[in-house]
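Lecture notes, part 5. Sequence design as translation. It can be helpful to think of inverse folding as translation between two languages: the language of shapes and the language of residues. The source text, in structure tokens, appears below.
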């Protein structure tokens, strides 16, 4: 799911390309994407764009007459800037917004069709899209600490809860926790003041760094490579690869629809965290340390080589098993 750095760059580029210009036409290709009936798309056509802003992970395009287009990309939604009048791609095309200088194409590469557009009359109507998450970039460390400790959660879950914090999802929470050297499964109730301050600083440094990286990459173009998996990331999507800080292999825990990636040496004092898929393979007896895991792997490989019918699994944590975990699953749009 596009997170704060991605959404910020979408907003900056849309602002530069559309503010002060008329929205000539809205073309809706998928009947599911438009979730409101009034105002109609036709009523907004011809209106000049007044503002583009971010509300959590949503993009809000304001047009004259105090009306707003609320775009939620969800997981697979993407925006592209194309030559004016560009045809919508088959299957993935949701909607197109035509401007004098180009066309904003909204796509979703998923059969689930969860991305959405709401058309809203009056700024007060935007309140229902505000999940109330704290903007970590603007917040004081005291406000950040109060919000973090307001509910008892794992820190991974707290950071990605859109009602607690704004714009942070699975990818950047992994990167932030690695930068803060904190275990994703530490409970927010047990985190010291110094750790909270380090976590807040890591939020700001990580989000600012990535936003600037994307800003430099996109320049005066438009972001067309928005992905949660970037080669420059430290741990997110890096299962089995060396941690860039210490070289330890990055580990993961798969839960619900998500996974947490972490470096055991940097974040969990060398301990491996309990993972059901891992534990099932290890017959409910998961290793407590990296050394133990290596020993077990060596033990598993040796008899399997001697007796192939043992069919030892080669991966300790396949993605498609043990999908339920202790974090629970958030099915509400964030
Ligand atoms: Zn490390």
């Amino acid at each position: 799911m596009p997170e704060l750095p991605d959404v910020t760059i979408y907003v900056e580029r849309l602002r530069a390309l559309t503010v002060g210009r008329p929205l000539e036409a809205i073309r809706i290709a998928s009947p599911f994407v438009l979730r409101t009936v009034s105002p109609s798309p036709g009523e907004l056509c011809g209106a000049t764009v007044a503002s583009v802003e971010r509300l959590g992970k949503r993009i809000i395009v304001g047009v004259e007459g105090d009306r707003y287009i609320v775009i939620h990309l969800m997981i697979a939604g993407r925006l592209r800037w194309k030559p004016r009048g560009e045809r919508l791609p088959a299957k993935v095309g949701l909607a197109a917004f035509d401007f004098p200088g180009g066309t904003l194409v909204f796509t979703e590469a998923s059969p689930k069709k969860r991305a959405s557009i709401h058309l809203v009359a009056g700024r007060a109507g935007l309140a229902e899209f505000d999940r109330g998450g704290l903007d970590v970039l603007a917040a004081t460390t005291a406000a950040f600490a109060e919000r973090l400790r307001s509910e008892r959660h794992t820190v991974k879950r707290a950071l990605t809860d859109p009602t607690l914090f704004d714009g942070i999802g699975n990818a950047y929470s992994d990167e932030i926790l690695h930068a803060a050297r904190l275990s994703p499964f530490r409970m927010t109730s047990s985190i010291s003041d110094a750790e909270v301050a380090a976590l807040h600083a890591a939020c700001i440094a990580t989000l600012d760094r990535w936003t600037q990286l994307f800003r430099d990459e996109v320049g005066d173009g438009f972001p067309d490579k928005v992905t949660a998996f970037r080669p420059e990331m430290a741990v997110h999507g890096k299962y089995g690869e060396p941690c860039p800080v210490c070289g330890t292999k990055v580990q993961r825990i798969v839960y619900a629809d998500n996974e947490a990636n972490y470096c055991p040496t940097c974040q969990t004092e060398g301990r491996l965290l309990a993972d059901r898929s891992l534990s099932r393979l290890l017959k409910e007896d998961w290793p407590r340390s990296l050394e133990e895991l290596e020993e077990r792997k060596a033990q598993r490989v040796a008899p399997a080589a001697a007796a192939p019918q043992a069919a030892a699994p080669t991966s300790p944590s396949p993605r498609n098993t043990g999908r339920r975990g202790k974090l629970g699953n958030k099915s509400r749009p964030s």
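The translated text above is only one of many valid answers, since several sequences can fold into similar shapes. The pocket of zinc ion is lined by residues 243, 245-246, 248, 263, 265-266 (CB under 6 Å).
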